[in-house]
Design a protein that fits this description.
mainly alpha; Helix Hairpins; 12 helices; 65% helix; MazG-like_dom; NTP_PyrPHydrolase_MazG; Nucleotide pyrophosphohydrolase; nucleoside triphosphate diphosphatase activity
């Protein structure tokens, strides 16, 4: 818990208590309201020039970067950094919503975003929330996820189980998503044959990667997470090798300097003898 919350309410940083421009932040009813108020100020006409110039498109890169930094904090179990990076992810979401609210043609607020999210979470959890004329259905975790995907496909009127998969993401997470969607489809056995269609590529590396992704999915393994974890191990090993080499080089340089000094002293002794 934030120290200020523990002491009974948020206070502006020391030295900013009387800043008039921060009045909306100070008067906000809760923590989320403070974030919204501050972002509105920064993106407003009297705010930060850089923040004010941002668009939904220009904010995509920091949104992606902050998301990866939060993933890294979670996977390294850095709790303090999780607090920091989750705040940065929240900032990017609120910032995007602020820009959307100012769109001249199709504006919408973060309140609309939140209400739409709440509606979706209710209607897509029939195993938790019964509608007025139904009773909740008991489902396991895998069944629940499959039901979610089917309901999403029906709600969005998707003709294919693959509709809606972003082509902007990397090939590995995209492959994992395709494999997952096919596997959760009600026609999984039929659609699975698509992976065996002939490839036009010269080499079979892509097919081999796809086979690994499918094997990982069958084993319940998050292949992208495992690859990130393995890369961290490799990076740690590389750093250790480099550190050892640097130490050896330093020792070698010192030994060489000592040897050169000894040679010079020997030469001096020889000259004196002559």
């Amino acid at each position: 818990m934030h120290k200020q919350e523990a002491e009974g309410g948020y206070r502006l940083p020391e030295g900013y208590e009387r800043c008039a421009k921060l009045a909306p932040v100070r008067d906000a009813p809760d923590a989320f309201g403070r974030v919204r108020a501050l972002v509105a100020i920064l993106h407003g006409p009297d705010g930060c020039p850089w923040d004010g110039a941002q668009t939904n498109e220009s904010l995509l890169k920091p949104l992606l970067e902050e998301t990866y930094e939060y993933i890294d904090a979670v996977e390294t179990d850095d709790r303090d950094n999780m607090r920091e990076e989750l705040g940065d992810v929240l900032l990017q979401s609120v910032f995007q919503a602020q820009v959307c609210s100012e769109d001249p043609e199709d504006p919408f607020s973060i309140d609309e975003v939140c209400d739409r999210l709440v509606d979706k979470l209710i209607t897509r959890h029939p195993q938790v929330f019964a509608s007025d004329d139904e009773t909740p259905r008991a489902l396991g975790a895998d069944e629940t996820l499959a039901l979610w995907e089917r309901m999403k496909q029906r709600e969005k009127r998707r003709a294919s189980v693959l509709d809606g998969i972003s082509k902007a993401q990397g090939a590995l997470p995209r492959a994992a998503k395709v494999v997952s969607r096919v596997g959760k489809s009600q026609r999984a056995d039929e659609l699975d044959a698509a992976f065996d269609t002939p490839s036009t590529l010269t080499y079979d590396h892509a097919d081999r990667i796809l086979r690994i992704v499918r094997e990982a999915a069958r084993d319940g393994v998050d292949i992208e997470r495992d690859l990130r974890m393995r890369l961290r191990e490799v990076e740690t090993a590389v750093a250790a090798i480099e550190a050892a080499r640097a130490e050896d080089d330093a020792d070698g340089g010192l030994d060489g300097a000592r040897a050169a000094g000894a040679d010079r002293r020997t030469e001096g002794d020889d000259d004196a003898d002559q």
